[in-house]
């Protein structure tokens, strides 16, 4: 039971070193918070605020979520006798009631032929998982810039989220997806859309990239071009959370101009020697390089959170066997560009494949729409 106070008692604490206020029937002690309040000290010492009920003033300037933040929950002293909070946090997994926050297929009275019961089940399960399990870690890591916590990787593996992130295809066969919310054989591109868009609700762009982006952009080339035994081994390890991938196509000289990279692979007996310093000559080769001798990585501080894990990789005389060449050794640009188009695996029918490959950068489009909805929702709040 939290402590109870009368409004009269609260009104006695209205000075700089002894400051209480009431928000939504809850009493907060702001005596020590005063000097670090982002909105300044004067706002809190105002005659209409100090020792008073500041509910309306507070909600005119802050979102409800501010009070849910653990660092501010600690400011709670108790509540006003005989009163109940009016602002209730919706249970995890709920749909938002903010206008335009949800897509039309989740809005009451709307029907879309693209979504069936399994999409609804998956959406509910992912939202609940995102809000309850991932969101707190996402906010903390986005703030401290550290790597996604191990328990999140493990939880994602248990639900087979890394495999689902790669979209529909034979790699899902035999897996239990999101505790059975969707069957592997019914998983389609709209299930993938659901996963991507729910992710936008984390409000943690760097963290989201750190959670899965390396796999998402690097694994398709392996799934499409690697020899079956290598492909199956890597997929198994990645889907089990034992291996992480990154796509190394950006250089200091080339930016994101893939055709301009200078890292060089020189043919040798049974494979290739990779060095990251020489001038580029000839065509582009795409190589699957396992971490080992001659490879060093270090974190890059980008303009977003280092939780993304963006890293600088150096290659010094790294031997890569011929078995690890993805696609044709001189036609790597095609390999890597097909990857970018998210044109991966064998879709069940050629008609569907053609339809899908029109969705260039499917994931980016889905993510961008999800993020725009999240922005509209935040602005409304
Ligand atoms: C428990 C009490 C309070 C907490 C934890 C708190 C926390 C915060 C935080 C975290 C911000 C940064 C913006 C945001 O994240 O929304 C902020 C901004 C602000 N707060 Fe508070 N605040 C409290 C009470 C109040 C009260 C009673 C007032 C009364 C006027 C106030 C006035 C402001 C103002 C003017 C801003 C700046 C708004 C802006 O930049 O748009 N705060 N507060």
UniProtKB/TrEMBL annotation:
GO terms for biological process: fatty acid beta-oxidation using acyl-CoA dehydrogenase. Residues 2-81 form the Cytochrome b5 heme-binding domain. Gene3D superfamilies: Acyl-CoA dehydrogenase/oxidase, N-terminal domain (1.10.540.10), Butyryl-CoA Dehydrogenase, subunit A, domain 2 (2.40.110.10), Cytochrome b5-like heme/steroid binding domain (3.10.120.10). GO terms for cellular component: cytoplasm. Keywords: Heme, Iron, Metal-binding, Oxidoreductase. InterPro entries: Acyl-CoA_dehydrogenase (IPR050741), Acyl-CoA_DH_CS (IPR006089), Acyl-CoA_Oxase/DH_mid-dom_sf (IPR046373), AcylCoA_DH/ox_N_sf (IPR037069), AcylCoA_DH/oxidase_NM_dom_sf (IPR009100), Cyt_B5-like_heme/steroid-bd (IPR001199), Cyt_B5-like_heme/steroid_sf (IPR036400), Cyt_B5_heme-BS (IPR018506). GO terms for molecular function: acyl-CoA dehydrogenase activity; flavin adenine dinucleotide binding; heme binding; metal ion binding. It comes from the Eukaryota. Belongs to the cytochrome b5 family. This is Cytochrome b5 heme-binding domain-containing protein. It comes from Marasmius oreades. The lineage of its organism: Eukaryota, Fungi, Dikarya, Basidiomycota, Agaricomycotina.
